[in-house]
């Protein structure tokens, strides 16, 4: 029988002791709103960044979603503001970065959370669908970095965190999505190499089967349980797990870490499904 673990709630209003790990820093979080009732990676990250002392610009293609994240931060006494940005467009990315610098005076952290998916293989996907996934999931990281990095250099360095997926490391019945997330890993490593001597650290997080707004609408409890049992820890991941990894990578504690693709996946990538299913049946 698999042991169950429920992490301490990190929902807004239930604030753990803060350590001010990001005090004095300014962060941009893209995709900072949530599209449904379940909190997404961007919203959770913006809240935790603010709890740790950062001033946070919350960017989202739907400004009302970003404003709701800002409201959650302000209720806890943090500092945040909202901006509407379609990060697949250069003009929006440039304006977003300018807004952060104008409002807060500097830029230290860029957290790229935006992502969309199309469930299709190469025979099924339309060219327009392919181009849209690549623009949102991949081109956006190039564009946000293009405008953010010069300001980070002026601030003495910075941390860029890109959100990939285990789908970028193995098939998941969505060739456009898997390809885009594999590209995020490659771009992260290339950017880390290009900009390390400028004091810019670039890492990516590789989330596993997180229960978030992208998947929640199509899940019932049976499917959620199968996902929990899929990895060695046998527990369900949430946006807060991804967000805490982002806090670490954004902080000075990770000052000597760059070019890393960090799995946050309950161990899903370390074991074959067959072996894990056998171990899950063992009694503890």
What does this structure look like?
The chain is of the alpha/beta class and 284 residues long. 41% of the residues lie in helices and 14% in strands. The protein has 8 helices and 7 strands; from the N terminus they run βαβαβαβαβαβααβα. Helix 1 (41-51) crosses helix 7 (239-250) and helix 4 (127-154) packs parallel to helix 5. The chain is globular.
**Overall shape:** globular
Radius of gyration: 18 Å
For the secondary structure, the number of strands is: 7
The percentage of residues in β strands lies in 5-15%
Number of helices: 8
Q: In summary, what is this structure?
A:
With 284 residues, the protein is α/β, with parallel strands linked by helices. The chain contains eight helices and seven strands, in the order βαβαβαβαβαβααβα. Strands 3-2-1-4-5-6-7 form a seven-stranded parallel beta sheet, sandwiched between helices.
List keywords for this structure.
7-stranded parallel β-sheet, 284 residues
Protein topology:
Layout: E1 26-30, H1 41-51, E2 55-60, H2 63-75, E3 79-84, H3 90-104, E4 109-112, H4 127-154, E5 158-163, H5 175-195, E6 200-207, H6 221-228, H7 239-250, E7 261-264, H8 273-280
Parallel strand pairs: 1-2, 1-4, 2-3, 4-5, 5-6, 6-7
Helix pairs in contact: 1-2, 1-7, 3-4, 4-5
């Amino acid at each position: 029988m698999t042991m169950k673990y429920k992490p301490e709630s990190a929902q807004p209003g239930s604030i753990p002791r803060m350590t001010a790990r990001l005090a004095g820093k300014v962060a941009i979080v893209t995709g900072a709103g949530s599209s449904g009732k379940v909190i997404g990676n961007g919203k959770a990250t913006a809240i935790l960044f603010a709890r740790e002392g950062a001033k946070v610009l919350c960017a989202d293609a739907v400004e009302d979603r970003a404003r709701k994240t800002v409201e959650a931060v302000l209720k806890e006494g943090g500092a945040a503001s909202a901006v509407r940005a379609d990060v697949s467009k250069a003009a929006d990315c440039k304006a977003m970065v300018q807004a952060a610098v104008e409002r807060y005076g500097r830029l230290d952290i860029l957290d790229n959370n935006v992502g969309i998916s199309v469930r299709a293989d190469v025979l099924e996907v339309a060219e327009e669908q392919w181009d849209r996934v690549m623009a949102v999931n991949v081109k956006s990281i190039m564009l946000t970095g293009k405008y953010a990095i010069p300001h980070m250099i002026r601030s003495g360095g910075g941390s860029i965190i890109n959100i990939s997926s285990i789908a970028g490391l193995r098939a998941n019945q969505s060739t456009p999505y898997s390809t885009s997330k594999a590209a995020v890993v490659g771009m992260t490593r290339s950017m880390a190499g290009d900009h390390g001597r400028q004091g810019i650290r670039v890492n990516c997080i590789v989330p596993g089967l997180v229960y978030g707004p992208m998947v929640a609408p199509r899940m019932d409890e049976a499917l959620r349980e199968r996902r929990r049992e899929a990895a060695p820890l046998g527990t369900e991941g949430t946006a807060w797990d991804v967000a805490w990894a982002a806090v670490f990578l954004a902080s000075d504690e990770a000052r000597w870490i760059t070019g890393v693709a960090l799995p946050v996946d309950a161990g899903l990538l370390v074991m074959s499904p067959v072996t894990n299913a056998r171990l899950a049946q063992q009694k503890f």
